[in-house]
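Margin note: ligand = adenosine monophosphate.
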Amino acid sequence: MNLYSLFRSRFPSDPQAVFLQHDRGRFKYADLDRQSGKIVSLFQQLGLHKGERLLVQVDKSAEAVVLYLACLRAGVIFIPLNTAYTADELAYFIADAEPRLIVCTPPSLATVSEMASKYKVPQVLSLNAQGGGSLMDRLADTKVAQGIEACRADDIACILYTSGTTGRARGAMLSHDNLASNALTLHRCWRWQAGDVLLHALPIFHVHGLFVALHCALLNASKVIFLPKFDVNSIKLALPQTTVMMGVPTFYTRLLADPEFDRALCANMRLFISGSAPLLKETFDNFEQRSGHRILERYGMTEALMISSNPCSGERVADSVGFSLPGIQVRIAGERHNEAAAGEAGILELKGPNVFKGYWRMPERTAEDFTDDGYFISGDIATMDAGGRISIVGRAKDLVISGGYNVYPKEVELAIDAIDGVRESAVIGIAHADFGEAVTAVVVRKSPGLSAERIRTRLKTTLAAFKQPKQICFVDALPRNAMGKVQKKTLREQFSDIYTD
Ligand code: MCA
Ligand code: AMP
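Resulting structure:
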């Protein structure tokens, strides 16, 4: 049941076939098996055992992917973190996850080592985007382990942190079987075929880039054109050599903003997939007109991986995330937890082999997110028509999705409220042409001298850049209802056009 065994069973018959083509060269399937075997040996030397945790905050590289696969192979729990997280944010994850090994970037080694000794983490190694660092140095004279640790389906493979509405991040535990079942389903539903080449420009610390994209390619023994990040010019160069691309809606709006993006560039493409945030109908239509491709939109979340998808060969419809994937039961809960009628909006709930094993060391929090009959409550508001087609129409959770990254307003509000001179704040998402939604802060000051600049400077050390408000607006008071609750809808209306003016 080890996910790595599944991948290995699908490796190409020619071990010299390329797995990752990256900016420094080619990484073959044989290299992947060998290098991951070396890392497994290193784990043994370091006393890092099955079920123990490895926390990783490194730039995107082929070696970082191999580190992930080595964890699967050894049964070590892999915990990837966004490289944008500040030292303050990192400290929380270290304290919560209690890893036995941290792998960080070389420039952050000194700071991370200090934190590691504070939280009693025995080992810290480094890895840079060029595949160098103390982790790789240690592999030089390490032997290659051949085996794969035996795992049960329920054994935890990864913990992915997702912020919560309380402002406190929680670790979603995903098992080998969660990942394997979802990957097999996607591979089948998206009709991966011989010769498919994946264009990969997503970060590899989230479900989308790490699992959805890479797992499909691995199951298909495909080549991956592995870009360090999304950049329109690199995508334009790579498109003619690839057949499948996955991205967040910002990828597609940025491509459309380039006058050179056209049908000819996409002539070799089979499939464009979008997810992580709502894809506007306007983007879907413009993309079809410019490229000749109807983007396949799918829907998922960290706790449940991929939940629904538009069909590969049937009709792909704008403003819809398609049908629940095979083996996954989706229902729309109406106001009194009854099942909503066809077309009626309610909270999307689901059950299936994709649903995670709970939040790390938060059993009460986990229980709150499940119904009595075992359905996971997504927090997304959706409709389902009589034919089972799903549309996401809103969110019951207070969440902003900016360029595919989730930002929980509570976390940003807590950081702003802690600044001297702030009375209170409300953080909202406002429509933004590039990021879909932009994090926007509405602040009530105690001292009129407090400037937006000062708030910005303070937030730089506490919050990752993508969480920082793109605009800070001052008001005399926040609108509240009779119960005293801040009326975010009113604020969203009031500031709806600040990014379009
Ligand atoms: C970067 N910045 C952002 C974002 N990304 N600000 C808000 N939202 C963002 N998403 C900051 C940068 O730090 C920088 O700040 C400034 O904005 C401009 O950066 P820019 O160069 O334009 O950004 P970029 O480096 O080109 O990145 C934009 C991006 C990237 C390509 C859209 O954010 C991205 O790759 N997003 C994908 C996220 C993703 O993989 N989500 C999947 C989650 P400063 O100027 O201060 O330096 S998994 C998930 O949600 C579920 C499971 C699912 O369904 O998939
Ligand atoms: P995360 O917590 O990062 O896994 O983000 C999951 C959330 O992203 C979901 O609960 C949705 O709110 C949102 N999401 C993902 N895919 C889509 C989509 N295709 N359309 C609308 N929202 C989406």
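The mean pLDDT is 96.
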